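Lab notebook, bench 4. Still working through the backlog of constructs that have no structural model yet. Next entry is a single chain of 453 residues. Request: give me the structure tokens for it.
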Amino acid sequence: MSSSINLRYTLLITSVAALGGLLFGFDIAIITGAAPFIQDFFRLKDLGLGWAVSALLWGCIPGAILAGKITDAYGRRSILMGVAFLFLITSVATGIAPSIVYLIIARFFGGFAVGAASMVSPLYISEISPPGIRGRLVALYQLSIVTGILISYLINYLLHDTGEDNWRWMFMSGAVPSLMFFILLFFVPETPRFLYMHGDKKKSLEILTRIGGKEQADLIIRQIGESLKIKSTRFTLIFQPGYRRMMWVGFGLAIFIQISGINTIIDYAPIILRTAGWKIDVALFSTFIIGSVNFIFTLVSLWAIDKFGRRPLYLLGSAGMALMLAGLTLANLLDKFEGAVVLMFILVYIAFFAACIGPVFWTLISEIFPNRIRGMAMSIPVFTQWVFNALVVLVFPWMLNKAGGSFTFGFLALMAGLMFLFTLKYVPETKGKTLEEIEKYWLDKSGHKNIES
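Model written out:
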């Protein structure tokens, strides 16, 4: 059936949806270059800087929850359009901030958009993708995230020497991709699974046929119908025995992806490298190298995710990240925490995350929940990862200065090791299965094949 896939059309619509990831990555990482200048401009101490950096992440929490609730009611595409518009407004608002309080508020509301995009974009891609290439297409979302990060690093470097208002232009540059995302969304359809759930079976079948051909469309439309025989649309469905295990897996993955340190590296790379002895201009240029490695190895994941599967990549990535964080810990203990050494460990750490963890995380949490409540259910791990993201980013500057580099990186290494063990014990393989087959797997696993509420 894979030969019937309309790859050009499928790539077009999934690439547009994936632009939500570009804005996600841009907004997350633009603070990387702006942070040192904001700290000087507003004379911030460690926790003040932590709030300025993490404000967006705190906004992501209600954004993810709200999007999860309303996307099941109003559709994936319409929510993405609202997200694009909010990205546009908050990019400008952050750039013109007259005070640190105003900046924190603007970034908090920008976090609504990031949180919603992080939930709805991979959800859209997962629901519209043929099963044989779904991993690669959802990985496009992670590729868009790292592209946004790379673009922001480049903008930060180009603007770093343009005067005391350079950080304002860094933030306002985000208005351009936001407007582009908003316009392109007019040219993509709603997902077939949402259309079916809301009574438009004919349109759902048309889109599935255009994407994967008639044979595959007929098969999937039957599977969707079977999966929707569960009458309940209540959120409590996910706590019934047949679904409780999938919730646990999503929750655990969401915690470990953040407490293993990825966003401390993304957001605080210049500060880490400055503590390793490098000046700000060299540190900012090094972040562009970090972003480039992130981008290149995310391309590797596009090839690997549907070839080797989700579970093997997650195991490899978590083990590699743990080793690199252990290396940073050892460098601190041996008083070898120097620029080139630190950068080497960071680059390999990023390579393991980009090739193995980042794309697989978003793929898994967009796959494992049932059709009828996928939006609401997926919002829980997305919400969870934003909570832990915000906490880690908030306390990292304080922890690095007060507890020291060896303790800080040692803790992150331990968490990456626990992520390996969690994956080994709980995470199943979902490669090549339809969303409905994955749902059936969880029901069969628990012995509850016909759950009614």
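Notes after review: The longest helix spans residues 7-42. The chain has one domain: 2-446. Flag for follow-up if needed.
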